[in-house]
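User: Can you predict the 3D structure for this chain?
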Amino acid sequence: MSRAPARHLLPALLLLGSWACAGKDQVTIFATGRTQGRIGAVDDGGGRTGGFAVFKKLYDSEPGPKLAVDTGNWFSAVPEGWLTRGRSTLDCLNAVPYAAAAAGLEDLALTPAEFQKLAAGSAVPILASNLYLKSNKKPPFLHSWRVVQAGGRKIGFFSAVIPSPKKANRPRHLQHYRLEKETYETEKAMKALKDAGASVIVMLMSVNPKEEAGEEFFREFVSKVSRVDLIITDDPQVRKPFRAGRAWVAGAGLEMREAARLTLDLDKATGRLTGVKWKAVELRAEKYGQDQAMLKIVTRHKAAAAAHMGRRIGSLAAPLPLRDGVETPAADFAADCMRRWARTNAAIIPLSEPAAGFSSGTVTVGDLRRAFPLDSSVVFVKMRGDDLERVMASMPPSDITVSGLRLFLKDGVFERAESENGPLAAGHIYRLAVPDSMTGDREHSVLANAMEFANSRRSLREVVSWCFSRQNSIPRPEGRRIVRGN
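Assistant: Here is the predicted structure, written as structure tokens:
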């Protein structure tokens, strides 16, 4: 019997040899981020692109040691995300499966009870290293760090949420949580990971989607901490890897249109990171196909969302466009709803709240969500008449609409405000309803001039839906709330 292997076995043996070699000195990490609920493929005109069913096929086709990680923000963009509060995305992460996922800033809109329920149903460890409850305790349902095995190596992961790169490295209080300084939590996590035997330490950094960090931010951050081997971030300004001090910085694939493929070169003797290769892999269905088991998960969530968004909530006798000349019918309607629901003397709403108008006829849950996509809550405010007049004078009249008030302009400049009973009385106390988007804006002095205020914790969208439910057919609201004169 010949000792030489059969000729047809040579390619397989050579391939196994290359994999074994790669297992000792290479590990591949697939990184995604800011899915914001986009779990399925979309037709971009050139074929089906994106989604977890395509990603699952790509991930399974990788022959060597591999891991998948996600940088967070799981539900803000599409119905299946909103309705499940991130469960649809986590179901897909579980099915790949991912090694770790970091909470993003948008995910922190979840209350601790909601987040605990989400984490309890997830096999993927959710990381939030610099996150604390209002009680200054760590959320027991989240992880500060995690060590996973790949190719015989221990790779450690931790995360940080960056609420504002321009005001980095300071504690930040959110509605439900507190974010600690990222450098402080980085040092704690790195010590724990080193003690656990991690040879490579990877940080998942989630940046506020409304801001961008840029290369200089990462260089400054790295200069303030002990050695981090690799930072994977969802900052869109970061694409190909670059060195910041002794650390590598690389971007994740965003919105499930692509995935970042990072090949880590490791020293065979020590397991330390010696280099990073990066590639953006477009998730094209015609190239990779779609995993059928994952496709069932995606289809189930999308079908449930479509059924919910198609539910009728009311009817309109006339369309309510976003703009009609100088009039703003959709915003006027929302202001009237807010005032009626809150039983206040007046209501003020920024024109940035509505994103679309309504057509006449049947109005669905989906129509309402498209018209009012923000998650603003209604706030009750009490204010003296003279303070209310000063507040109205401080607001650009082209940026707001009102209910229960009329604003008079002269040559485009605020002149006076009147209630339904005539000019505002200086000492009279008026009750107002405003979205909380106004109370956090320094350009507006609503809370600074308020005698009392309280957040109803009811969203503006819920209030508008309530108005639809109270009438069979709603007419166009009265206009001329802002009177322009010379």
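The chain has two domains: 23-306, 311-485. Residues 1-23 have pLDDT under 50 and may be disordered.
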